[in-house]
Write a structure and sequence with these properties.
By secondary structure, the chain is mainly alpha-helical. The protein has helices at residues 3-39, 54-73, 80-85, 87-114, 121-146, 150-181, 193-201, 204-220. The chain binds protoporphyrin IX containing FE.
Length: 222
């Protein structure tokens, strides 16, 4: 193999490794936060905890636990070698991801309806749309899998993949933005200009890019 090709390949693997580390780091944070919120009184620690509503706490903290589960499992699903060699495993893990995504979406939507997000109506709208899309994509992924329509199943599964990663991408945008600008147009209440763009920027552009790629792939043929 040429040196240039080899370097490009190595850079690709390195990028994947860094992304995998980010996934593991955020999933561990989300899992720990969720488990602590379900089992302890976190009222002194976070505004997300509701001291007088067990239902709201179960909704948002189980959302974090199952969000972590979906995020760790979902990168394995598109790998063709695993799908072909272990179809039963693909089906079981797929069902776990779909159920987890449905709970994540419903938990987030319930929290928005009861408590609202930290930044108010605009963030509520952006996040509620995110939750509705996740719910829809999870149901469509399962529906087409059960109907054995592999082509449609994989298209909806890819959309779900992007949405599950959205929560991590939201945080990555902040890491990059804060390291470049020291938090310009952003504040703790998430009401700054940058924050407002973030209400949808962590999933819509990526879904759009996926749709463009899917259309190009369809036009190119098998
Ligand atoms: C795999 C996907 C997801 C994971 C891993 C995840 C994880 C988390 C975590 C860890 C938090 C705590 C806030 C923080 O410390 O940053 C959180 C908050 C929240 N999440 Fe999710 N989430 C996911 C998807 C969603 C979806 C689809 C919705 C939309 C319904 C949503 C709505 C919310 C809301 C409204 C909050 C509270 C925001 C606030 O006011 O601070 N999340 N989530």
């Amino acid at each position: 193999m040429h040196l240039r090709k080899r370097l490009v390949l190595m850079a690709g693997y390195l990028g994947l490794l860094v992304f995998a580390l980010f996934i593991l780091g955020f999933a561990a944070y989300s899992l720990r936060f969720g488990l602590r919120g379900i089992s302890l009184d976190l009222s002194d620690e976070t505004y997300i905890y509701t001291s007088d509503s067990a239902f709201t706490n179960i909704a948002i903290f189980s959302h974090m636990i199952l969000g972590a589960v979906a995020m760790i499992l979902v990168p394995f699903q598109p790998i063709e070698r695993i799908r072909r060699r272990y179809p039963l495993l693909h089906r079981i893990v797929g069902r776990v991801i779909v159920v987890a995504s449905i709970v994540v979406a419903l938990g987030g939507l319930a929290y928005i309806a009861i408590r609202g997000t930290i930044a108010g109506p605009l963030m509520d709208a952006g996040f509620a749309f995110y939750g509705a899309l996740m719910l829809g994509c999870a149901i469509q992924t399962l529906r087409h899998a059960r109907a054995r329509n592999v082509a449609l199943h994989s298209v909806w599964a890819l959309r779900l993949f992007v949405l599950v990663m959205g929560s991590l991408i939201f945080r990555l945008h902040y890491v990059i933005w804060y390291s470049l600008t020291d938090g310009l147009w952003s504040n703790e209440q998430l009401t700054g200009g940058f924050d407002q763009v973030q209400y949808v920027a962590f999933y819509l552009p990526y879904l759009l890019a996926l749709e463009i790629w899917l259309r190009r792939r369809a036009r190119a043929g098998p």
